Structures are given as C-alpha cells and as structure tokens.
Amino acid sequence: MRPRAGFENAGRARNLAAGRGVEGVKGVPDVSTLTESIANHLIAKRDQNDPVSVARRQACPDTARVVDVLENLRAIVFERTPQERLNSDLEVVHGLLSGLIGSELASKFLEHLPDIRHCVGMDVEAAFKGDPAAKSYAEVIAAYPSAYAVSTYRIAHVLYELGAPTAARIMSEHAKSKTGMDIHPGASIGCHFFIDHGTGVVIGETAVIGNRVKMYHGVTLGAFSNKQGRLDVGKKRHPTIEDDVTIYPNATILGGDTVVGEGSVIGGNVWLHESVPAFSRVQITPPQLQVKQKDKDSEAGSIDPTYDI
Looking at the predicted structure, is the pLDDT value of residue 129 above 90? Predict the structure, then answer.
C-alpha cells in the first residue's frame, strides 16, 4: 500500500529536523550547515555595533512588568481596590515601581497620585457630559477608549517628568495598541479632557493642551518633518491648544509655533500650521456637491452599476 502524502511530508520534516536534508531533492541544504552559516552572519552583524546591537546593551525595562505596574496603578485610580486594602496595595505598587525606577522615584510618583486621581475624575466627567450617548460614569470608565488612553497618559506623563521616559513610552504604546490613540507621555494636557471615539488621534511630545479641550477621532497635533534630525531634540515642535477648544475629526495642526486660541473651533479635515486668535472658527471651504436623482422607475434601493455620478 502506498503511504499517504501526509506521512511522506512528515518523514521529510523529520529528516530536515535531524539535519539530514531530503534524499533525492536537489537544492535542499543540510539544516545544520545552513543554521551554522546564518548564525555566523548574525554574530558578525552583532559585532558591528549597529543600532540594534547597541540597543541590546542599553538598559530597558521589561514590557510585561511595566504593563503590570500600569494596570495596578489604574486599579487604584479607578477605585477597583477595596478601601481597607488601599494602604497595602499602595505598598505593593511602590515595590513594583521601585523595581523599574528605584525607590526614591517611586515615592515621588506616589505623591502625584492624588493629582492624577483628580484629573482622571474630571476627564470622566468631560466624557459623560460631552457625549449624549453615555448612560453613566461607570459606562465611560468601562467602555470608552478615551478613559483608558487618557488615564494611561496621566500615569505615564508623571513617569516621563520624573526621568523614566522608556517606561512611560511603553505604557503609552500599550494604550495605543488597545485604543488606537497615540498620546506621547511628554505632552502637557490639562484636566477635563475628552477624545470622542478617538481612533487615529496623534498627540506629539511637545504639544501643550489646556483645560476643557475636546477632540474627535483622527486629529493630529504633529510636527513638521524635521530636516534637523537630532538637532531638534528639546525644541518645541508641536502646537499649543488653549482652553475650551474643540477640534473635529481628521483635523491636522502642525508646528511648535502654532497656537490655537482659547474657545476656538477647528473644523473637520482642516490642515492648520499657523496660529489663530481666541474664539476663532476655522473650516475648509465646503466641497461642491452634485446631487442627481435616479429614474423614478428604477427599483428603490437597488445598486445600478451603470449609474454615473
């Protein structure tokens, strides 16, 4: 009886795993020879001190540990830890933080927790009052991506300011992977901040945002492409948004010298790279729409591939 193809393939796989190649098949190398050659090439690359090799030797906190610290801190901020255990939970978080940034900085971070808690409460209120679809504060905390992304930013920003930028960036990238919002922990953001829907929002490192600001999905507070490269480190590259500004979907605001004055409204799809005074209304010229009516005898709701719009 001829063996089934599956058994033949399994036999070839065992031969390859054992480093014997496949008899009768041209061009299939011996596996041990192949892997030895590739290993030598990779070792040579490591010895060249390229950016990847240098990064391997630089101190970097473990991503899983950083995310664990973040979730423990969010549990405290959102009061998911029982009141009678709060003191012991804070001690546990202090220990976890100490493993990342040292005991002294961990203590300084905990001193900021009341302020973080205050701003997070105002952010939740902003979401609830700013979205008629919200049914409760509990829903905002449990189901609104803004609550997760912005509360993570509040925690990460303090770490960034305390001199732990890598741990802060890991936290912000974790939030980005869950919500689609990219908020750099170096940005300065006032309280009562709400991002409605939120997917695709980008807020750069040196952006400054005032209090009671609301923005929608797809908004970018970005920088111009920098020809100076690393010479731009430390310079303000992202815009300033003053108090009580609303920014509608897919607006792009660029540049460190750009200031959007308080109380302004920036319309959807606007491309803005110059300052506007307080209480401005900025919008693009509405596109010229063409509306044509189908033949009244055509089937209602049908799709006519020959209908030219």
Answer: yes
